[in-house]
Amino acid sequence: MTNHSEAAGTSGNSDISGQNGCRGSGEPSAYLQHGGATGPHGEQQVTLRTPAELADALPYLLGYRPEDSIVLVALHDRDTRGRFGGRARLGIPAQTDDWPSVAQQLAHGLVTGSERRGAKPESMVAFLCQDPASGESSEDVMERLRPLAQLLRRACGSLDVPVVEALCISDGRFWSYCCPGNGCCPPQGAAMGLPGTSVLAAAATYAGLQVRGSLKEMRARLMPWETAAALRQETALDAAQSALIPRILDAESRADVGEETLAVAQRVMGRLADTPAVSGTLDADLHDDELVGHDDAATLILGLQDRATRDRAAEWMEGDEARTALRLWRALARRCVGPYGEHAAAPLTLVGWVAWSSGDELEAREALAMALAADPDYLFARLLHQACNEGLDPESIRRCLRSERRGRDLAAASEGPAADELIPTERCSGAESSAAQPCVPTSPRRRRRSRPDGSPDGRTTRRSPGAAHARRPRSADGTRPAGRRPGRAAGGASGRARARRGGGAQAVEGEE
User: Fold this and answer.
1) Per the confidence metrics, is the pTM higher than 0.70?
2) Cα→Cα distances 394→98, 130, 317, 381, 389, Å
């Protein structure tokens, strides 16, 4: 380690942009500093004095235990105290040829994001987290990842931001890639302390902060089923697709499908809301699964492929309504089984949006990354993922959705024009709105009819390579429904592979 006498701790709310938000009154601040007992504003300050404590602090920096991850953490205020700033995490690519570009992407993204917020990092701390594969020791992992650590140090150094510490964490042990080799770090690595026993862990517990398990456990809540029930759900999806696709293709009945989809969603949400809460995430999810029938889930998954229906569902974003909707969207993401893996983009994006709107940026980022893994071209997920990572305020989107809802209610109450024929005072639909481009107040006017699929540029749905000679049916206006692609056989390997990729998107994630 370059300077083992320096201390480290955790920061306030921040993300890849380097933005530092407000801390709660009881949350400990964190600095990499040479002395002093309190932060600049008199708040409690946590000092970690060993590399082991720095390694133990990582889950508290992120809010979960990272796995197969590269993590960069920015440090500010070199001359006084090393305040932790933005964080960026990325999965470790399996192919070593990808390592140079990944190192550049992480370093450039974190530095430029911090500069955009007005504070370029003074230095960085890097973590490489990966457990041994079969037949591999943790020391083998450390040596295998050493070139990646060097690439990270060079990438940061080329931006004039030195890496002051780089740790490898594997199977309960850690190594420092920056150790000068004076015997302070044993070659076999040092054992980490018991989880939650560091000074930072004690301070975080006192402040009411918790580590939410591992990244794998978080993503498991949103992954498609791989049980016997998945076959029954796939059968229900096949039946729903056969019944709904012809109606979605028909411009006159498409709006009716949307209304029916939302009615089913409200009915299921009522069922969920009336059920007593169950403790434990696994038990709670299993209980929710029992309350959502296969046919209802299939109707909702197919219906939410329509952008207009999905945007109206996104209006359930606040208060008790948001909590119940979030349970439903998670349950639907788990039902996108077999060849319907790409359909998970819609419910996963709704999970991400409601979580972000409710203040849970951690779940929001993971859900949106998984939505992009299911469908990299899903525009709403791309915009939300970017806005969330840049630390923008979701209120601008909430304001637009509230306005849409009020405009529709007013139109219905006055028996005037249909709500979808008017642009409310603040117009903005989920697919076109991002917090990066706030809604602009406008006067009510007639809106041009959008295409039935709601796409502003008229692009049709992408075809998979396996569907080169099989086209989905088109309506008179040339749009395609959002159903299974005819080129995929039921239970086909291509669909299953996409469904199981889950959160493996190689998109840089800002971490809270």
Assistant:
1) no
2) 33, 34, 11, 14, 12
